[in-house]
Amino acid sequence: LASVSLITALAVHCVVLLTMTVFSGYFSHSTDFEVHRNWLAITHSLPVSKWYHENTSEWTLDYPPLFAWFEYSLSHVAQHFDKEMLVVQNLIYTSPATILFQRLSVIVTDIVFIYAVKECCRSVREEKGSKDLLGHPFFILAALLLWNFGLLIVDHIHFQYNGFLFGILLLSVARHLQGRHLEGALLFTVLLNLKHIYLYIAPAYGIFLLRSYCFTKDNTDGSVRWSSFSPVRLVALGSIVISVGALSFGPFIAMGQLPQVLSRLFPFKRGLCHAYWAPNVWALYNMVDKALSVLGVRLKLLDVAKLPKASMTGGLVQEFQHSILPSVSPSITLICTLLSIMPAVLSIWCRPRGARGFLRCLVICALGSFMFGWHVHEKAILMAILPFSILAVESREDAGIFLMLTTTGHYSLFPLLFTAAELPIKVLLMLLFTLYSFTSLKKLFRGSLLNPLETTYLLGLVAVEILCEVVYPLSPWQHTLPFVPLLVTSVYCSLGVSYSFIRLYVSLLRQHGTDKHKQL
Amino acid sequence: MENWSLVSICVLFGLTARWAVSLNSYSGAGKPPMFGDYEAQRHWQEVTYNLPVHEWYFNTTDNNLNYWGLDYPPLTAYHSLLCAHVAKLINPDWVELHASRGHESYGHKLFMRATVLVADLLIYIPAVVLYSFYLSEGSNKKKVCTVLCILLYPGLILIDYGHFQYNSISLGLALWGVVVLGLGWDVLGSLAFVLSLNYKQMELYHSLPFFCYLLGKCFKQGLAGRGLFLLVKIAVTVLVTFALCWLPFLSDPGQILQVVHRLFPVGRGLFEDKVANTWCSLNVLIKIKTILSTDTQLYFSLTTTLLAILPSSIKLLMKPTLWQFKLALVNSSLAFFLFSFQVHEKSILLPALPVCLLLNDLPLPAIWFLQASTFSMLPLFLKDGLLVPYVVTSLAFLFFSIYLLSAFEHCSEDKLRLGPYRRLLICMPRMDLGRVTKWKFYFSITAMAGLSFMSVSLAPPDQLPDLFPLLVSVFSYLHFLGLLLYFNIVQIAEPPQSVRKNQKKSN
């Protein structure tokens, strides 16, 4: 496995060096850049008790306490670069030293991700020994993870610390694959206290650990043997969860600030969809609503004056008002999400298929919450794509779904980078990753992985890209209806993501069926 | 994985690196009144678009030659005209006569960068891929690695996409010449080279090897029979191509003289700024520029240049093989760079191109040379604000080339062809020359890193404001001189074994 580390290092070098160049040139600042600078300032210059009360900037601290401590520790390095960035009042402060520090901090914390990828590669099943290095599943996995287009642009061009966070997630998954469940549970608890969006996949963790770790034996038909329950294991798990939670939230509970912290973490005041609709069910729902209202106006069934204004003028406002279909409340999205992941969770309870079954369930949870969640960001698709890479190099069917999901999901990230100078970069990087994933997986499984319809759909993405970013800006509608490209992108992509979600479910249920069949 | 996908991945990677560099600053950004090479190229678009052909190279009321007057051959002018037509379509302000002087905007920068990328994609990159696949040896994987390493050469990327020039066109056409000659189509090869010469007169550095290679080939076929026919074919091709390129200027001898005068500005002196060549380095010890008159300097430099290129040219004439040809290209252009008149620091790209072609055969010396050549342009990069891209692309190039071409495993005495040194220096103590070379390489890379760091972070002493640029150029000069000797010895001593093997096979 020496070659693994070598190749891993190689891939990393490419990524890191390339991205470094990208940033040196243009210092474009996304909102997330300012968000994290503000958090550095808050954690550095204010006492802990003020962290979740501070609101000078509109980008208030809305990650769990461990992440705040992470920013706190970063700020101690930051002060050697430029002290001014640590002043809360310095809004949108972007000195070169600040940029350098922020960018470097992402690159350096990526080490966690690199280590996690190495551990994941170790846990991949190898089929035959003597193939050339480029054809090995572990190599393909390393490249798919390290070169992941989405992670690259979200972290290193847009600006976030996902590499660090996904590193912990993948490490935890790798530990489960290796049978080191307590470590895996500890890592996941830490992760939850760094960023609470991972709550979406907590059901998979909870049920898996309860079923496959706390119950030590199965009946012969695979169902749970209640007598094998191990209270010691449950206590061990519980103490891990509680101690990490106490470490993180304890001080705030002691200060009586828990409600304040929670209100920051779960802001339900935002709308159903983000400014740019993430490609999920609600994008389709909005689209249907819009189409119906336009149709209604045309057929004189509806009165234009009575329609909510936003629905006719834009669509890029935070609050999208439905004109025909019923409005969706947060609780409905919650119920939909729970319903969508229920079968997967039940499946690993009834017929646990080891850590790989758990991984599949985790991906479904991530994707289900992406499809039905409240105010989902397009970036959340990475939560499904990255863990799914591990399954993709092990089974032919998963590889096909993976190609569909990643290509559409990655394309849906394009609106994150919207300037003309960034266009070639995002297209080239996307082509690089997509070309690699297609040819390597095709070679690995010897044959085509997609049917003609799927291929046509993916080729359609090229047409959408040309239409939205080349043709449309030149047309006269650019000024009257500027939101159309985003709308088309998110609706087109949501078709592909929904399709992948359904296929993923079918594969899960089919496995369930064959398991039952075997027992009969 | 199939070759085509690996190659596409390499090309995409090269393109990404190029575009990433191009997001950086360019020469003379925001520095009126003269700006830099970027403005020169834009100005040529303005001039060629708005003025009739016969005014392009003349000083008129509309064409002030002192402000970035056109001083490249006609193909460059036609290329500017083509770009200007596209620019006019997008935004007429960019090429408006007089009014557009010093125009700088976000959109214009994107347009200019895109023209470089398009030219690169159409000319240089295909030539690199063809060369690696048809003319270099080894497994397919090795060929792919060669493609990647050549495409990642930092010097060319930084000058074309950072500083701003179109070297990928002239160098790409010359490379097409090499590729096509290597495949055995002599006429097409000479056509490609003449085009490259008509794009940038600096390609003269490469002209002697092309000439000797073709002439040698004619000799080999017998000057009485087929050889003569070939010679006539090539001569006609060259003349016709030249005539076609210069067609608009042929009507009037005054035009031709003026263009030639613009192309070779003898009055500008032996060297400008700090160049890593003999004259600039010698100037530290003896002030040649003041001691000798301009004419003497000219003859002096001409003689030394001719002396320096003679051995390799004669050898090539006697033995016109591809291997000799590649080495002769290196030796000739490097000799020109070191000894000829009016050399710019950017001219190091001319020897760098044939050295790229040696990456597969002599990895360590080639990498060493390419890195030194990038380093020699450091003062220029610092002036243009390209420090970070310089550091990043250099590190990436060193890492990839050393790792992918396994440079350190190919540095035994045999592989580096260091045998002749033993014969030349009999009294030399017994030691492993390969290892010595490796250590010298480490030392030199460390020194380059150190000097780069010092240039950036330390202020020079008051009485020596040019200390660091001078150190950089003298240090690079020592590398170039050493490698010139080395490549000459490799060329003259013996053909590589692999070539001999191939010849046996073909027999």
From TrEMBL, chain A:
Keyword annotations for this protein?
Endoplasmic reticulum, Glycosyltransferase, Membrane, Transferase, Transmembrane, Transmembrane helix
Subcellular localization is given as: Endoplasmic reticulum membrane
Which sequence ranges are marked TM in the entry?
6-27, 91-116, 136-154, 161-177, 197-214, 234-254, 332-350, 357-376, 413-436, 457-475, 481-502
* EC number, as in UniProt: 2.4.1.-
- Give the membrane topology, semicolon-separated if more than one: Multi-pass membrane protein
Matching entries from Pfam families are given as: Alg6_Alg8 (PF03155)
Q: Is Membrane one of the keywords UniProt gives this record?
A: yes
Functional pathway: Protein modification; protein glycosylation
Query: What cellular component terms from Gene Ontology apply here?
Result: endoplasmic reticulum membrane
Q: Which GO terms describe its molecular function?
A: dolichyl pyrophosphate Glc1Man9GlcNAc2 alpha-1,3-glucosyltransferase activity
The yes or no answer to whether the keyword Magnesium is present is no
Broad EC category:
transferase
Family indicated by similarity: Belongs to the ALG6/ALG8 glucosyltransferase family.
What name is this protein filed under?
A: Alpha-1,3-glucosyltransferase
TrEMBL record, chain B:
Q: From the UniProt record, which GO molecular function terms apply?
A: dolichyl pyrophosphate Man9GlcNAc2 alpha-1,3-glucosyltransferase activity
Signal peptide positions (record): 1-22
Q: In which pathway does it act?
A: Protein modification; protein glycosylation
Membrane topology recorded in Swiss-Prot or TrEMBL: Multi-pass membrane protein
Species in which this protein is naturally found: Oncorhynchus kisutch (Coho salmon)
Cellular component GO terms held in the UniProt record: endoplasmic reticulum membrane
Tell me which Pfam families the record gives.
Alg6_Alg8
Please give the name of this protein: Alpha-1,3-glucosyltransferase
